Amino acid sequence: MSDWTAGYVAELDYTHDFFQEMTPARMGFSALSRGHRHGMAGKGLTYCELGCGQGFTANLLAAANPHIDFHAMDFIPAHIAGANRLAGDADLDNVTFYERSFEDFDQAPGLPQGFDIIALHGVYSWVSRENQQRIADFISRRLKPGGLVYISYNTQPGWAASMPLRRILTDRAALGTGPLEQRIEDALEFVESLKRAGAGYFASNPAQLTRLSEMKSMSRHYLAHEFFNKDWTPFHFADVAADLSEAKLTFLGATNPLDHVDDVCLTGAQIALVQAESDPVRREGLRDILLNEQFRADLFVRGRLPYTQRGAVAAWFETPFALARHYGTGPLKLSWRQGEIPLEAHQYEPVLTLLAAGPATVRSMLEQGAFGAMEWQEITRVLTLLTGAGHIAPCLPLEGLADRVATCRAFNLAVCKTSEECERLAFLASPLTGGGVAVDRMEQLFLLARSEGRAGPNGWAEFAWQILEPQGQRLEQDGRVLTLPEENLAVLKARAHAFAARRLAILDGLGISLLDDAPSVPGAQQAGAAA
């Protein structure tokens, strides 16, 4: 009998994560930032995720974007079964999951002939060369002209020094016959013995000691899929670009907007080296060398349509933003590859203060004086940096908001209901941004309590404790497990009051609410009117 896994880890399920870079509105902003006329705000869009894992990202995006038709595949039956169950619990009718391999997915019944977006996160480096070619062929056949491809992968040179470490771990795990989780533990302990024995590899590569320490603290489910597959390829950028060029794709840019601003990524001398290279593929390769890059998340496009200068300004004007993180007073510190990013309070404070009242387009922010006397280039730079750092988020148009609120509420309720049993799902859907927001188990329980009419933070905390106590769950404080009920309840009340004071307003402002009679998103009319 052939091995249906083809060397890929199937013994341990993948994690239930959400990847913000796969959000259509976020992709659209990254494309705009790179001067490309995208169609992410259009109607009748189709989205395909290759290798969807547990399908959580696809389900969340389907809830937050009911106007888009989602299709997602994975070859592990348990992943697809779980994804279908969540889609059913959330009453989603715009997402279809397929238990298929890359070899036969193209023949799946009901698959659209063309897609506006094809996305694959954490897939390309972890499958065989044969499957990489199948992925490229699928993109070639199914991506529409003007369509976007999101692809993430491990890269050289950042992984070069770690390849021997990964090899010894996988070789050691392959020697065992027990459960994979235990074989991973045994492999990590064996590498620890090499370290204790004074292995020259660690002496010459001290950064790998940090890598080993990080791996020991990671989820074993994540480690299994990240490091213990048969196939594991850190790519040079040029090789991925060459694969996708066969599908008529060209590189558009990194999905993280911070990487669009050279002076926060590179030194002056490095910028000069990169700018002296005229070939865009070799230019990206140089950046990877200068940054010792180990992971890339990129956008490629099938047929680039550059904006005129006037058209780009108009597109920025119509882009709405929402506040994505609590902002009080005091200096705001952003940091990236070159350390702290210099921003003056007059550049960001009026923007964040204005957005605290509700979402707004760039045009309306200009009309309300949020940018003061800043030049246009300064304005787009500040917005790009604030977006990349997660303080603000690009939004969908106001049209269709009511439908998105309803589908997000159903999805978020389904997710929060799981928090009564476990902390597996840690993101909720925003009808404003069309993406996800990290919301931990306690915060989900507080939202549930609020939706069930529990009065105030103290009532929310008591609701959470009524769920946690019978499960034997106890909180920690200052490194100590709290054993007394009154201690646990006191900590829960403190957390609930902090949640009410800081976090709840952000979630409400992003349209994340379980209340049936929740008010309209604050300021949404302002954002829409300006659009």
Can you give a write-up of this model?
The protein is of the alpha/beta class and 531 residues long. Helices cover 46% and strands 14% of the residues. The chain has 21 helices and 16 strands. It has helices at residues 24-33, 56-64, 77-89, 129-142, 163-175, 180-196, 200-204, 207-217, 220-227, 237-245, 268-275, 280-291, 309-317, 345-355, 362-367, 376-388, 401-418, 441-451, 456-468, 485-509, 524-530, and strands spanning 45-50, 68-74, 95-99, 115-120, 143-154, 250-254, 295-301, 320-323, 334-336, 339-341, 360-361, 392-394, 427-429, 436-438, 476-477, 480-481. The protein has a seven-stranded mixed beta sheet. α2 (56-64) runs antiparallel to α17, α6 runs antiparallel to α8 and α11 runs antiparallel to α12 (280-291). The chain is globular, with a radius of gyration of 24 Å. It starts with 23 loop residues before the first helix and ends with a helix. The relative contact order is 0.12.
Sum up the structure in keywords.
alpha/beta; disordered C terminus; disordered N terminus; seven-stranded mixed sheet; 531 residues
Provide the structure class.
alpha/beta
The CA-CA distance between the termini, in Å, is 59 Å
Number of strands: 16
Low-confidence stretches: 1-13, 525-531
Number of helices in the DSSP assignment: 21
Gyration radius, in Å: 24 Å
Shape: globular
Across the major sheet, the strand order is 3-2-1-4-5-7-6
Which percent range fits the helix content? 40-55%
Strand content: 5-15%
- Please give the oligomerization state of what you see: single chain
Summarize the biggest pleated sheet.
7 strands, mixed
Give average pLDDT, whole number: 91
